[in-house]
Amino acid sequence: MKHLLTMADLQPEEIHTLIDEAEGFSKGAIWTPLRQAFVSNLFFEPSTRTKCSFEVAERKLGLEVIQFEASASSALKGETLYDTVRTLESIGVDAVIIRHPADQYYDELIEGCRIPILNGGDGCGHHPTQSLLDLMTIRQEFGRFAGLKVAIVGDIRHSRVAHSNAVALKKLGAEVVFSGPQEWFDENTNYEPIDRAVKTADVVMLLRIQHERHERHSGISKEDYHREYGLTLEREKLMKPGSIIMHPAPVNRDVEIASILVESDRSRIFKQMENGVYVRMAVLKRALAHKIGGRYHEAFAEK
Ligand code: CP
To answer: Cis ω on the peptide bond leading into residue 193 (within 30° of 0)?
Structure first.
């Protein structure tokens, strides 16, 4: 079963293959299933990018998208996630994309469910498709991972993006350092002070403060956070030539990053979102191709 649950599931060669396929899709290649195929996006937490870009990816591949609104589903009557997925499977859905507030929600699904599960984010755990689109963006920029230094800055402990990227980038040979408030670090976090991290990194990846996952308010004001840990206009001037700014978004402008930098020359934030569609097409193809077969069409060269 071609689930995609964490970046630990993927070997470096598989990561490169998925990015290669995503690049192909970005240039106009297309894959279509051999029969009518159904997918459903089960989002039990808010999402703009992941949910919408999965849906665009699904429609580009000619998949039928079965609408599911958690707030109007029988989950409200107490139906478990397991029974929800088994139900969709029984009525003919071929794969599900799930975002859920529980860490490793998928543990209770993978034994009994017979369709691929693509993790759209589990609690503070993992966000593999975000990591893949981040890796695609980095590879487009530098052509490699080995020897690069990536500084991940912010609320590390509560960030599934930080967890997935740390696993994947280290596996691919990059150096990963973390910066931000140390109270939000995991054990053994490879800490660097913000000014040194910003000066020496090839990629500065900012994270949103995940207030919704905090047990209590940190007490730090937006202004103080920006000054102490944010990418301010002054810190951006310290960045190396050729280095880039990334952020998974949603962005809190003027908190983790100065508003004007979001759309600056160094920023790849909207490129990341664009790449998200192509990476999700590649992940959907990986999940469905072995089960239902498909046809791959190379992009036609422009005359
Ligand atoms: N980056 C990301 O996962 O954004 P959404 O929460 O909007 O899906």
So the answer is: no
